[in-house]
Amino acid sequence: MGGGRPTKLATSLATTHKPLVDTALNPVANESFLTLHYRLCGPDGAVFLDTFGDKPATLSLGRGQLTPAIEACLIGLSEGQRARFDLEPGAAFGARNPQLLQHVGRDVLARLGESDAQYEVGDVVHFGAPEGGSACAGVIRELGANSLLFDFNHPLAGRAVSFEVQLIGVL
Q1: Where are any strands of DSSP class E within 5-160?
Q2: Residues 6+ positions from 33 with CB-CB distance below 8 Å
Q3: Rg (CA), the chain
Q4: Listed residue (79, 45, 93, 92) closest to 165, CA to CA
Q5: Against a cut of 0.85, is the pTM above it?
Q6: Are 89 and 43 spatial neighbours (Cβ–Cβ below 8 Å)?
Q7: pLDDT digits over 58-110, tens only?
Q8: Residues whose CB falls within 8 Å of the CB of residue 88, separated by 6 or more in sequence, listed in order
Q9: Higher pLDDT among residues 11 and 138, named by residue
């Protein structure tokens, strides 16, 4: 996923709250290596991911570790700065894609996993990938006699997202 300067789309879809620290040390640029704490929340305030109170995350911009809209929020922030961004529905993780709702046969699930596994609506099932592919996970939305309906959309796709960040280090 690309980095670079904030795009007009990302800038117009994010409401920036004034940073808690005003500093001009080491601003974040494309391909910066970062050590940071961050929190992602859905529109109801439910926490999806939170590194505050635990080890900070380390990542490189422009390597696909964050979505382009979230990376755009980081560009220009400075080491030591803390900020919060409210992104419009779909801006952070894209729109929900109805094609990512797919039926998977129980026979296929038995071949790929445990043959006697018991599934419930809301379970997250991880699927390995063939050689060279990337693994994915889906949430069970419906149980059928011969198949289960999975939702392979990101859980925050199509939803407003609050992104809070505290930059610890910028290289």
Answers
A1: 14-17, 33-41, 47-50, 57-60, 82-87, 101-105, 124-127, 136-143, 147-151
A2: 58, 59, 60, 170, 171
A3: 19
A4: 79
A5: no
A6: yes
A7: 999 999 999 999 999 999 999 999 999 999 999 999 999 999 999 999 999 98
A8: 13, 14, 160
A9: 138
